[in-house]
Structures are given as C-alpha cells and as structure tokens.
Amino acid sequence: MEKSRKVRSESNPEVMKKLDDGKIIGLLYERNEKGLDAIQQKYGSTMQGIAFGICGDRQDSEEVVNDALGAVWGSIPPQYPDPLSAYVFRIVRNLALTRVRTRSAAKRSGVVVPIDELTEAIVSGDPRDENAEAVDSKQISDAVNEFLSRQDRTGRVIFIRRYWYSDGVTDIAKAVGLSRVAVSARLSRMRDALLRHLKEKGIEL
Question: Nearest-CA neighbor of 71 among 43, 90, 51?
Fold first, then answer.
C-alpha cells in the first residue's frame, strides 16, 4: 500500500518537477518511463525553448523534444550524466541543429530526407563517385529491409511511418496505441539496433 501511494505521488506533475536528478536517473536505470515524464516536467519548457530557438518552427521543435527524450532513454543507462540538465539540453541542441541542416539540404535538392536521426550522411564513400554512391545505397537498402523483416509489426509500422513518411511521433503514437514517450523510446532502440546491424554488414556510416 505504501508503494502504491509513492507511485501515485511521483506521477503528480508538481512532485515530478521537484525530483532531484539522481532520482530521475535512477528511474531511467530501472527502465521506468516515469524518469522521462520527470524530465519533461522539470526541463520540458527549456527543452522546447532551445529547440524552437534553433528550428524556428513549433512542430519541428516538438519533434526535436520527443526525439531528445528517446535519445535520453536510449543512452541512460549506461550514461550517468552530471549534471543531467546539461546533458539533456546538449542532445536537444544537437538534434535541432541536425534537423535544420537536413531541412535546408532538402530544400536545396527538392527531396525530403526523413532519416536525420539515424545519421547525417547515410551514403559513405566519395560523393563525387555516382557509381559508388549507387552501390552503397543498394547495400544500405538491402540491409535496412533485412533489419525490418526481423521486427514485429508494430516496430515496422513505427519505423516506416517515421523514416519513410516523416510522420510525427504524436501521430504515430495515436496510430499504434502507444504513448509518445514509448514511441520515442522504441525509435531510439531501433536506431541503435539498425546502426549495429549496418556495421555487422560492413556498412560504416
């Protein structure tokens, strides 16, 4: 009964805002999503401000914050950042900068590239060598298809809607019946798993 009261108490937004960073990190080490909720309550407005200041777009900044939460979930553990706030804000800043660079490149090329969270440069080799780029692209495509074939249906839907159709985390969460935090966390795990898979295939990004 005492444990139940404690969980309900920690779910209160005002209580979550007051959790110290060590307790938040402890929740993340326990793989308890309340750790992400606490980060949102405690640092969410600052995260949003950083993202919007760089992106200049409300929807983009919301997506950056969601992606940052997923990155935090994917990196803690093993990371134990001190201070936590600086770590979280640095992730937000880097993701926002990457999004702006990718958006600018897409405008120049006329092509939407929704995989900026995976890597800034998906094709290796000399970019002036069109034949090498085509080969690398096919290798990557085959590897990604193999990776997706190993995922469950929900994982495939989340991945494809995010990286092929550029759907927002909120829309994906509604479609698959999960929370935004859960979708962000799952995307983070899938990104890490895909990059490991690509390296196993000899594809260095």
Answer: 90
- Which whole-number Å values give the CA distances from 25 to 33, 45, 160, 189, in the listed order? 11, 19, 31, 18
CA angle 163, 169, 171 (to 5 degrees): 105
CA 79 to chain centre: 16
> Is residue 184 a contact partner of residue 170, using CB atoms and an 8 Å limit?
no
Q: How confident is the model at residue 6 (pLDDT cuts 50, 70, 90)?
A: very low
Nearest residue to 116 (alpha-carbon basis) of 49, 181, 57, 162: 162
122 with 115: CB under 8 angstroms? yes
| Residue 145 to residue 121: CA distance in whole angstroms | 19
**Interhelix angle 84-109/21-29, nearest 10 degrees:** 70
53-105 per-position pLDDT tens digit: 888 788 888 889 999 999 999 899 889 998 899 999 999 988 888 887 766 55
Specify whether the CB–CB gap between 149 and 158 falls below 8 A.
no
Helix (H) or strand (E) holding 192: helix 180-200
- How many DSSP H helices and E strands does the chain contain? 10, 0
Distance CA 181, CA 36 (A): 7
